[in-house]
Amino acid sequence: MQHVKTNGHGSVAALDVAALSYSYGSKRALSDVSFFIAPASFTVLLGLNGAGKTTLFSLISHLYNTRNGAIRIFGHDIDRASGEALRRLGIVFQARTLDLDLSVYQNLSYHASLHGIGTRDARQRIDALLASVELSDRLHDKARSLSGGQMRRVEIARALLHRPSLLLLDEATVGLDIQSRASILATIRRLVVTEGIGVLWATHLIDEVDDNDHVVVLREGNLVAKGSVADVVKSTGKQTIREAFSQLSGLDARKATGAQT
Ligand SMILES: Nc1ncnc2c1ncn2[C@@H]1O[C@H](COP(=O)(O)OP(=O)(O)OP(=O)(O)O)[C@@H](O)[C@H]1O
Is residue 199 within 8 Å of residue 43, measured between CB atoms? Predict the structure, then answer.
């Protein structure tokens, strides 16, 4: 049986990233990144464009093979026990991935069948999830007819079909209006409380961080801060997470030298 590593407090981390590095040829995208997220918690992965967020997600979701370091999902190593690990993972990628010519129901039921969920169970699950993302009335509409925010919510429902315990979202609110952004963020935060899901929410938008969140800050592939918002703010000597992120991500230095941001 596979050894399940705990986070030092006796409980198994929802996600444990240990000494992870990754390069595209000679281009280093991640350097020795380590952090964990607790079950039923909301962690914001903060980083400017090019910080390495998408690369990290591609490694966690096993699109890329881990060459240096390790990734465990609820103790299951993504390379050595990928089936066990991926069964617990739901993911919403930055790029849109719905089939626009299929209905909402067809998009979801296809995904359910890929996960081996039977037709009846799938139908119940789809109805419940569409209700939770407030799209029950769009079941038979073509994906093409939905707004950007509604498509995102269908993608979130799809990522939850197989009842994952860890959910990753990569810039889930990019391109959406303020109201849709707030609604999607509220939906995900609710899932943490009602379903006990551990969430890793990648963004470069600092106003998506709440005072009670945990944050992981990446800068050019290096992890430059991790912990509660209060601890990260304190570690920088700043007053707010916005100011702390500006310093940690190098924006302050760029502004000081008059570089374009
Ligand atoms: N396929 C690739 N080939 C070469 N370099 C890449 C490739 N994908 C990403 N990179 C580089 O790796 C680094 C990290 O990119 P990544 O896409 O992971 O960052 P990101 O934080 O997700 O940024 P964004 O928010 O712009 O998507 C960047 O310097 C990027 O140019």
Answer: yes
